[in-house]
Structures are given as C-alpha cells and as structure tokens.
C-alpha cells in the first residue's frame, strides 16, 4: 500500500472557505464541520477509512500497456506518468485491496483523482478487471469507489475499450451472483460513469458528489442552455432515480456493512408456526364487506414503513428506477426479517399526516415505482434471497404523467418478471389491494391478506358508478365484488389470512406487527427449501388455474397439501 501523508496544520474548506484545524479535519474524515462539504480523499486514506483495521491485503499490480501510442503533446505522456507516480506515490489511478468492512469480507477498488484526474486508461481498466475477478474467485462483494474526470486521451481508442472491458467484468459478477456496490465521490465523469460506476447493484453517493457522462461546462457550451441548480449532484441524482442513496462519509461503513452481509440462506430452517395463518374462511370474524373496506383504508392503519421499523433489522432503503425518478409511493430495500435476509418492497400511503400522504400520492405508484420494485426483485434473484411485498394501494396512479411514463408496460413487466423469479415471493395485502397497482407486487408463491384487508379489480365506488350508475351503491358493490378476506380465501385468490388485533391493526401496531411477522416467517420457512424450478412451476400453475373449472379454492388446498 502507498505511504500515508500527514495532514497540514490548517486546511481550507473548498466548499465554504473556512479554515479547519488539520487534526480536526482528520477526525471529521475530511468533512467540513461548518458547511458539511466532503473534501477529496486519497486512495490510501479512503481504504484506511473503509476497511477494518489490519485487514487490508494489497491486490495487484497487473500487466498493462502504459504508453501504447507513444503520445506526445507539450511533453511526452511517459513523463506525465512518472510525474503522477512521484506526486502521488501510487503506480496508477486506482488502488485495490481485499479486506473486511464491519466484519464483512470484500474486495475494494478505490480511485485517486490526484493521478491524472483519475482518468480511465489501460492500467486502470486492468486493475478494475483484476479486482472484479478476485471478487469472483473469492465469492465476496466488490466495492468500487470512483473519482474520475473521464477517459485518458493519451491512450487513444484503447482507453475507450476499457469501458467495455470493465462492463464485461461487472457482467461476470452478475452471472455469478456476486454483489457489487459503487460509492460515487466527487467528481465521477466520462467513461467511468458510463461503465463500472453505474453498473453496480447498489449505487451510493457522497453528499454533493457530481456524476455524469458529460460535464456541465461541456453541456452548457454545446446546448446553450442554463442548467438547473444542483445539476448532476448526488442529491439531484437521487431525486431523478440514478442512485440508491446519498450517504455522508461518517455513515458509509455501517451502510456498507449491512449491504455486504446480504447472502442466500443455507442449511435447514426451523419450521414456521403453521397456526400463525388462518386457512379457512370460518376462522375469521364475519364482517360486512363494506366494513372491511373502511378498515382497510383507515388512515392510522400500520403502513409499510411502520412494519419495516418494527420487523426488519438492518434495513437499507434503496431508491430510484435508474431511468428518471424515485417514486415515493413505493418503499424498497434490503434487510433481515426474523434473521432471514430479504428484499422488501411495499406501497406506502404515508400514514395519518395529510401532507405526507399527498407526497406519497396515497400509495398510488408511478411507473418509476414499479420499475424500482423490478430492479430490487432482480437484485433478490441475483443474490438468491427471498422477496416480501406489502401491498396497500387504491390502485395505480391515475394521472397523465403515469400514462405518458408507460404505466401499463411497467405493470406488465412486473407481472412477467415475478412469474419467472427464481426465489421465494411472499405477498401480503396489509390494507387495500386495488386493481393492477396491487397485482404488480402480488404475483407470488404465497399471497396472504390481513384480516381487515381487501383485494379487488376496482374500488367499490368505481364499480357502483359504472354498473349501478350510483356512487352511493358502493356498499352493495363491495358485497357483490366479494372482496372480504374470507371470500378471497374461498376463491383461492389468497392462501391465508393474517390475524389482526381484535379492534383492528390501527389500534395496536405492535401486536399487528407481531402477527404479520409470524405469518410471513411461516410462509418463508416453507418456501426457502424449494429449488428455483419448483418455485416457478408452482407459481405459474397457481395463476394458470384462475378462471378455470378447478380454480376456486385450489390455491388454499395446495397450501394444506404441501
């Protein structure tokens, strides 16, 4: 590893211009205590901060072309390389090491902007590829910390080829089911941004870090347009669905530790509590269907985030569809449910606060929400961990933005994806299950409904307005639609009913969470031992039955016989 340099007595913050005492600057991990600006770190400093003490094992060097063109501008490229090596103490613009983060093994490749602007050339491409292959051989996650101004022009088209080379290395990790995480630091541009930096399963960014293919100056000069405030910053990228989270430097190690600990469950699981799920309609208190609708919509009913806070350990929320935006109506992330690693995805209405409910669009997802869900499901499939979905939505978003954003296609893609996912899927209707917006998260191996939940092709009010020509006929429509949990069980649409506290989940969130945990755990413990072929075959057979002569009650019957 390269030598560490002692901090200056005083450091001027590049963000606000304040002078910070050198030792304090070191203690704050080069983050300004006045304005929060994240100063640049050298690659050795970054590895010291990220890896557990005493665990770093240097990886490299690897053979690579260093001056393939014999390039000369105002001075020979070979001289520039020697100068960069002398100034930084590094052989190249990336430093690779194996080690642990919070006790979790990984391989880390950390870029250093001091070395010719962190530019992507043949040697950098070789080192990133070597780090990826080491990760593959050891079957441990790859962590990439990026800082780059773009491609290394002095190496011509061969530097361009490093984008494809590193992308190919990332694809090999995808095929092998090895987790990859990018940490975007300031700046990350050009070929690095358009290859390995954005191909990771999870993309984290430091506050204020900028990332893009072209820099803002180039964009403004080319288009003649004024760019919006904060363009290409981490916060802008988060709002536009391009990164999973913005993580301050002081919080990065715990976040990485949670992520790096995700791995498939191996070995036999203890049996689940079969009594945690009601499997017969007569076990449920008989309520008028309209009463169920009203309770399913109760504003104080536990939300997806309420359940996550009570049930999921080490939850790490992940954001964005990688295309356009992050939909707040869908919450998605990774964590542990009763010790089992899961990807958890759910509609989130926002709880009793009206402002928050509006911000969450009352749980009605945009197309980006379904795409975010699909991205997390693919991550679950890659890592071989189960998916749990919590469904609570009046339906898909009805606005014109959703339609122009490809809402129908986004829902359809989720239906197809879930049909062939090679991992267990447990879906729970924790409140309203409205139309295709609900079904987009409910193509599952086990579909459960809470005792005061509903599931319907249309809202009772909508049905009454269309067929009765009278919105006041909603209670009659609710009865005719048979959306009561007991009816859903009799129809075979759900496999079981999750009990609720006697007065309803809205009256006792803690008790409701305990009941939900027991039911989901029982379902997961049954499904986790199944191999992917069995899961997919049974899931497809389940949905194929609906609407046939043997459809009614078939799903519930299969549960009891499995």
Give the percentage of residues in beta strands: 15-25%
Please identify the structural class as seen in this structure: alpha/beta
Q: How many helical stretches? A: 22
Question: Percent range for helical residues?
Answer: 25-40%
Which characteristics define this entry?
alpha/beta
What does the model show?
There is one protein chain. Helix 17 packs across helix 18. The chain is an alpha/beta fold and 562 residues long. It has 22 helices and 17 strands. The longest helix has 21 residues.
Secondary-structure map:
Blueprint: E1 10-12, E2 19-21, H1 22-27, H2 43-50, E3 57-59, H3 77-88, E4 94-101, E5 104-111, H4 122-138, E6 142-148, H5 156-176, E7 180-189, H6 190-193, E8 202-205, E9 211-212, H7 216-223, H8 234-239, E10 245-246, H9 252-260, H10 289-296, H11 304-311, E11 312-317, E12 330-337, E13 340-347, H12 354-359, H13 367-383, E14 387-393, H14 400-404, H15 407-419, E15 425-433, H16 435-439, E16 446-450, H17 460-468, H18 474-481, H19 485-490, E17 496-498, H20 509-527, H21 532-545, H22 554-561
Parallel strand pairs: 5-6, 6-7, 7-8, 7-9, 8-10, 13-14, 14-15, 15-16, 16-17
Antiparallel strand pairs: 1-2, 3-4, 4-5, 11-12, 12-13
């Amino acid at each position: 590893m390269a030598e560490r340099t002692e901090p200056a007595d005083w450091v001027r913050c590049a963000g606000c211009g304040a002078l910070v005492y050198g030792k304090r600057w070191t203690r704050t991990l080069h983050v300004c205590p006045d304005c929060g600006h994240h100063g640049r770190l050298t690659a050795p400093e970054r590895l010291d901060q990220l890896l557990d003490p005493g665990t770093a094992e240097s990886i490299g060097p690897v053979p690579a072309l260093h001056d393939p063109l014999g390039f000369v501008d105002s001075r020979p490229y070979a001289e520039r390389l020697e100068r960069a090596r002398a100034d930084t103490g590094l052989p190249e613009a990336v430093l690779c090491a194996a080690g642990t983060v919070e006790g979790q093994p990984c391989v880390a490749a950390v870029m250093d902007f001091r070395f010719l602007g962190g530019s992507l050339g043949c040697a950098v491409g070789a080192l990133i590829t070597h780090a990826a292959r080491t990760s593959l051989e050891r079957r441990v996650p790859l962590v990439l910390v990026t800082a780059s101004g773009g491609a290394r022009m002095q190496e011509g088209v061969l530097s361009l080829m490093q984008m494809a080379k590193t992308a190919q290395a990332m694809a090999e990790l995808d095929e092998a089911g090895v987790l990859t995480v990018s940490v975007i630091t300031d700046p990350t541009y050009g070929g690095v941004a358009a290859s390995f930096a954005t191909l990771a399963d999870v993309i984290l960014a430091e506050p204020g870090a900028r990332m893009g293919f072209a820099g803002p100056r180039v964009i403004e000069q080319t288009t003649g347009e004024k760019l919006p405030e904060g363009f290409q910053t981490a916060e802008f990228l988060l709002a536009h669905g391009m990164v999973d989270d913005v993580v301050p430097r002081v919080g990065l190690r715990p976040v990485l530790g949670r992520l790096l600990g995700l791995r498939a469950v191996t070995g036999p699981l203890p049996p689940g509590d079969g009594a945690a799920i009601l499997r017969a309609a007569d076990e449920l208190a008989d309520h008028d269907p309209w009463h169920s609708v009203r309770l399913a919509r109760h504003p104080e009913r536990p939300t997806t985030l309420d359940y996550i806070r009570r049930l999921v350990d080490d939850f790490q929320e992940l954001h964005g569809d990688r295309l356009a935006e992050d939909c707040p109506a869908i919450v998605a992330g990774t964590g542990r449910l009763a010790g089992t690693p899961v990807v958890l995805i759910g509609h989130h209405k926002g709880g009793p606060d009206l402002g928050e409910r509006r911000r969450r669009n009352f749980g009605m997802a945009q197309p980006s929400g379904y795409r975010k869900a699909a991205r997390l499901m693919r991550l679950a499939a890659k890592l071989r961990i189960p998916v749990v979905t919590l469904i609570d939505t009046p339906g898909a978003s009805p606005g014109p933005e959703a339609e122009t954003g490809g809402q129908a296609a986004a829902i359809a893609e989720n239906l197809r994806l879930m049909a062939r996912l090679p991992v267990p899927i447990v879906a729970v209707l924790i409140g309203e299950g409205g139309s295709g917006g609900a079904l987009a998260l409910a193509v599952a191996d086990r579909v459960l409904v809470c005792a005061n939940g509903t599931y319907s092709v249309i809202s009772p009010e909508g049905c009454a307005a269309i067929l009765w020509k009278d919105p006041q006929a909603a209670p009659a429509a609710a009865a005719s639609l048979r959306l009561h949990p007991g009816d859903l069980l009799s129809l075979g649409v759900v496999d079981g009913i999750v009990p609720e506290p006697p007065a309803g989940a809205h009256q006792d969130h803690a008790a409701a969470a305990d009941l939900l945990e027991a039911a989901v755990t029982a379902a997961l413990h049954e499904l986790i031992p199944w191999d992917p072929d069995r899961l997919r075959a049974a899931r497809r057979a389940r949905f194929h039955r609906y609407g046939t002569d043997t459809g009614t009650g078939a799903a519930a019957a299969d549960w009891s016989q499995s």
